[in-house]
């Protein structure tokens, strides 16, 4: 038995899960938030208890040291050396990384160099990697890329119709994201459907605060809704999704915004459900507002559903039909009303939900027996995929 830690480092947060491997048992998990801000919060869930500490944590290196010391002080581990593997979620792997890799000095440098494609995420991912490599010099360190699953997309899906040079010289193309989640739920869906992934055409819908849909043919991603960055695709909690690029210069002139990055920030952080509702990016608030007759919340909900339906329609065309649509992530796993609203508008395509199965805690097939295209709910588990990849690459 060995202990492996799965790390998901964001720009100001670090989410972790400690596993006993190969048993795949979760020993403890936690989240450090507000890194770099006053009063950072570190929480550790272990043995049915949640331990929370509040203190200033200035950067990811400090966060990793605090997390490792918490593991010791809570007697989750006796020595750092018990952790023999670390797995790191890396958002952008560009065209370079088609699968998970052992991290060397060179790989760590390449991950840093890919920051241009994910300026908020890759530097944080790299900081987490450096901190763990320094603290656990004898452990196996593995990078798991959000983009890797999508590297099977054909050029017809990943190229944009812009001058060739932009691709040839600057690698402007669709990379997608959430790949680990799409891969995991598609493989689980195949188990539920009693078929090999190679025999199936699936549309996976990762609907959380970030939202992306993927068309999967024979186990391979052939198209996905996020693009060059995660800003593209369907409307999300705070992101616009697809937008006419001409809006950018127009809004800049109208509002006096002179730095285009300021506008991109608004498209990433103040748009989507938050932008339309004017109140919240959280689907639970939107559903409540809609129930109470709030017109803006209702419009936000309607736009959100409409954009997802349109992408499912696109992918039914891309795949020339599908065996199943799979819902996952915070909203996809937990909101029956959202799933129902999406599927109800797609009955012509042969999607049909069984209301008695579209319930809280649903896991598996929720469509009627007669439905031509099955509908499934599958809780995603990106951390488990990361821990498994560490295990695989440690052999
Ligand atoms: P994630 O990014 O996967 O953590 O998902 C976050 C989103 O899931 C937020 O918009 C939450 O409001 C939403 N969510 C979580 N639980 C529920 C629920 N029971 N009903 C509706 N939305 C939910």
From TrEMBL:
Q: Which residues bind Mg(2+)?
A: 8, 382
Q: Does the keyword Secreted apply?
A: no
Checking InterPro entries in the record gives: Ac/propionate_kinase, Aliphatic_acid_kin_short-chain, Aliphatic_acid_kinase_CS, ATPase_NBD
Asked if the record carries the keyword Magnesium, the reply is: yes
For this protein, what does the record note about how its cofactor is bound?
Mg(2+). Can also accept Mn(2+).
Where it sits in the cell: the answer is: Cytoplasm
The pathway is: Metabolic intermediate biosynthesis; acetyl-CoA biosynthesis; acetyl-CoA from acetate: step 1/2
Q: How does it assemble?
A: Homodimer.
Q: What is this protein called?
A: Acetate kinase
